[in-house]
Amino acid sequence: NPIVQFLNSITEPVLYRVRQLIPMSGVGIDFSPMIVILIIIFLQSFLVNSIGMLAMRLQ
User: Exposure of 31 by Cβ count < 10 A (0-12 exposed, 13-18 middle, 19+ buried)?
Assistant: First the structure.
């Protein structure tokens, strides 16, 4: 399926790097997608707050 191949080609480089840092759990569960999502949420909230504070200082 071309859509699945496209999504895999986009996400696999990021997930591969996380998998190198964090080994699989003993039960064979891959937590790398959850970790990437948490990192994205953290960065999003951090960047939005930082840019908002910067904009308030520039006014």
Answer: middle
